[in-house]
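Please review this one.

:::
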Amino acid sequence: MLFLNLCALIDGELKNEPSIASFTNIVFDVKKVSIGNLFIGEKSDISEALQNGAYGIVSTSFKISDDEVAWIKVKDIEVAKLKLLRYLVLKTSQHYLSLKSVEFELFKKINEDRDVIYIHEDIEDAIKLLFKSSEVETIVFSDKNLFDKIDLEDMEVKILNSIYVVKNTLFLTSFTYKGTQYRDIKIPYIFIKEFEKVLNIFDILNIKHSIPKLHFTSHFKPIFLDNSFRVQSFGSSTKALILESDINLVKEEISYIKKSASWAKIALLLPKDLNTKIKTDIDTITFNSYSDLKKKNIFYYNFAIMLDINERFENYLSKQHSDIRSTLF
């Protein structure tokens, strides 16, 4: 990209007449700057960026120390990033939309089209990804806040085709969609409306996907364990640990279990380091670490919803299983 074009995009002011006209990549971490890069960052990192080979500097304050390098001044770095991201989205894709956390994960689980780019909440990662990308059909944001900040009109999703539920258990749903019946799909009924919206997005944008390949997401994900914390096959017990990565969904999920399995004993498991409380009328158990859970009486309950924001619990279980196997041999 030419430095002059960049200035126009981010309302930057080119403060010199550099001998270098363009750059090959955008970097925000000064440690990762290499020859040909544009560095966007603070004044304190500029010297190191130049030593590492930066061709251009974007900052709010600097003293020109190399006339060959492009020096671009902006009023606000964060605003400049937003303007740059907006341009890259419009340049890269015909369609763009934001989805809520459940919708986003469902979309990713059944999508089979490589012509889709996923954008998470980190604006710097988004810029780096799109700057290197060729044109694609669709860009999907998981962060509505970031999407709104770059001032794009979100896609309006009209429900043209409906899901007709035939039967459902707590974790599985059988349904028909567009005349085809799907049995025991791993979509808890609590998220059936979100799934219906996602399917309609695929239809509207003509994106290749596969409903049967759907697996549980990080939301309301059942894990069946024995008393030694070994993972058991799905449905092998009337007791399950239910993982949830989004604290905002916990209360709704508790209500869903109460309504769908009124006979069940339910508990909420919260890591102490989260320093948060959820008001609920079910038993709440706090724990210091995953190994600490073994000391708790969690198997007294049929279902225990565990807040697993960083999605690390399954890795812990896998490591525990690997450690046990290694001691056996």
